[in-house]
Every structure is written in structure tokens, then in C-alpha cells.
Predict the structure of N-acetyltransferase domain-containing protein.
Amino acid sequence: MVSITTGGDQLSGQPDATFRLDDFKVTARDIAEPDLNALLALSVSVGWSHRAADWAFMRSVGRGLVAMDESGRVHGSVMWFPFGVARGTIGMLITTPRLQSNGGGLWLMGHALAQTQGRMLGLHATRQSHRLCRSLGFRDEGTVYQYQGHIGAVPYVAAPPEAQVRELAETDLPAIRAIDRAATEWDRGLLIDALLAQSRGMVLVRGERVEAYALMRPFGRGVVFGPIMADSDDDALRVLAPLMAAQTGSYGRIDTESVTSRIADFARQCGLEVVETVTRMSRDEPWPFSTGHAPTQFALASHATG
């Protein structure tokens, strides 16, 4: 079994491949193995809104494992998402109450940390997983607010005279990748490409230069807005507003680090409310997302990937 030092700075040894769960065992299996419906049943059992398509997307951009019994039922999951060779995030940590009460969350995280040794890691911890992540050496960095709700009347937001807001085009992709790299300081090219393949986007252009963008894609009960990257709150709002307006009457979600920003205020005006908070945490070195330099990430792509 995995051993953890007091204070949580190190996790040594390879976790056992099997885990005793009362009167039966579960085995650590690659997350690519189970049927999507088995993963969907797991997330539904804990009240998450992910669809089978959302699981398929996560598997396409990340790696991980599940706790599976002999009948093929999935009792837990954990994933990690590589960004370059030195960084990554951990997410999709789900355990059934039975697995969790027996220490299965620690066992799953042990496998994830064994697979990601040498990488700087970040994650967003729920209230249920926060203590576990603290025990494994992750440090608190801030709060992310999850806004959700049915989108009502969307206030009009005009572009300034010197800029144009338009639909994202294929020729904008190099600029989108460059903005993401500048904002996050991470190599998230594969993630951005995957997001662009299933998203609608808006860009703000000044002097033929793309300076802000926002993406929107199907997720859960409706759509999710993010990531949103811009040099200022004003520009972030300008690329978000047309996407939000196009979804009037639909169910929407946006994850942001603030409850006082213009983005947060706009979300509330459109009918979205904070339904959950998670804690941004890091291990070995801080996330670069909140450095305050421009461009800045104003909304996450997801809790799992940042």
C-alpha cells in the first residue's frame, strides 16, 4: 500500500493493484477500459452532471484509472492531464460512498501521483476531497466559483470603436494557442485543439491582432463557457456576451475565480448563480494562472484541466 509522510510532502511506493472493499475487491484498471455507460453511472451516483460525451472528451485529453470490480462496475475514478513534460492537473476524482469510507480516495490518488512523479501538479478540490489533497502535500491557492442556471435576458455589450468582435475562424487558431500559452505559461496545445474541435468561439481583434477569446461547448445539462482569455475584464466580457446571448433560455455554466469581477456580475445579470465552490491547489510550485499579468484567464475550461 502507499505510504504518506506527515505533512504530505512525499508519497512513496507503488499502490497495490487491488483494493479490498468489504467482502470483495476492486482492481485499478486503465480509464480507457470501461464502457462509457459505466463511467456515466459513477458520476450520476454522486450527483455530477457529466454526460457520456463529457467523459469521452476527458478520456481523449487525459489519462487515469478506475476502481473496477469483477462484474465491470466502476466504484471510483481519477484522471490526470499532461501539459508538456513537466506539468499537469489531476481531476475527475470520484468515489462511491462505500469506496470512500474504506480509504479508496487515498488509494486512487496514490496511483495518480505515482503516474505523475516529476510533474508540477494542480487541481481543484471539492469540499469532500479537500482534506485528502491537503494530506498529500497540495496547498491552497484560491477559490473558484461555479455559476449555473437558466440564461435569461442578456445585457448588450458593445465592442469599442477600435476593436472588432467576431466569430472565431480557423485562421485564428495559432493566435488562440499563443494567448493560452501566454496566460497560463503551460503547454496546453493539445487541450486547446480538442476544445476548439467541439466549441463555438468569439474573438476580439484590434489592429488585425487577436487579443481576447471565449469558447462555449455542450456540457452537462446545457453549455459551459470557457476558457475565456483577455487582457482586461472589459474585453473578457465583450467576447463572452455574444455567446451567452445565443444561449438565452438554455442552461449555462461558467467557472471563475471571482464573485466581484465584471464577468461574475454579468453572469448574475443573466440569471446564473453560484452553486458550488472548489479550492485551487498546487503541489511543488504554484499555478501560474493567477499571476495578474495579461493576458489573464477569466473562466476555466473545466475543473479537471484548469
Q: What stands out?
A: The chain has two domains: 3-137, 146-299. The chain has a mean pLDDT of 92. The first helix runs from residue 36 to 45.
